[in-house]
Design a protein that fits this description.
The protein has four helices and four strands. By secondary structure, it is α+β, with helices and mostly antiparallel strands. The protein has a domain of 76 residues: Sporulation related repeat (Alpha-Beta Plaits). Strand 2 and strand 3 form a beta hairpin.
Length: 155
Amino acid sequence: MEMLRTFISVLLVAWIMVACSEKTETPPVDPELTVSERVDSTADSLGVAASETSSVAATGMVDSSSESKAGRNPPPRINFSPTGRYILQVGAYRNRESADQAAMDLKLMGYPAQVVLVGAVFRVRIGFFERVSDARVLGERLSSQVGLKYWVDNR
């Protein structure tokens, strides 16, 4: 029985990996985005200005900007490019409304997010990036600070 359970688990993981690697044509980039959008270094690493984080603190949520950041280097700039080869996938949803909300939240943080339908799954993606390293830097940043899991893929 345990062997059957293990086999089914491995099969399920393999199926998920195959499903996530499907290639589809990506819709064109939002026309309102500039050619090289960058995260402002005067904002925090998620693109939220200090004035916005103080309003979050007023709502009773923890304000991480109040912690001492002396001696910390500013986060590296992320270079977005509409002609880039790579995308950062940060979510997959069964319904369009949830995917659109996640994309809108990311857009409000200054990221060029979009929703792409692949099969029956709405994928939330950020990009495009010329270098895979730029996508990974942003993925790690979002993972550590917001808790988003990510996947770097070809366009």
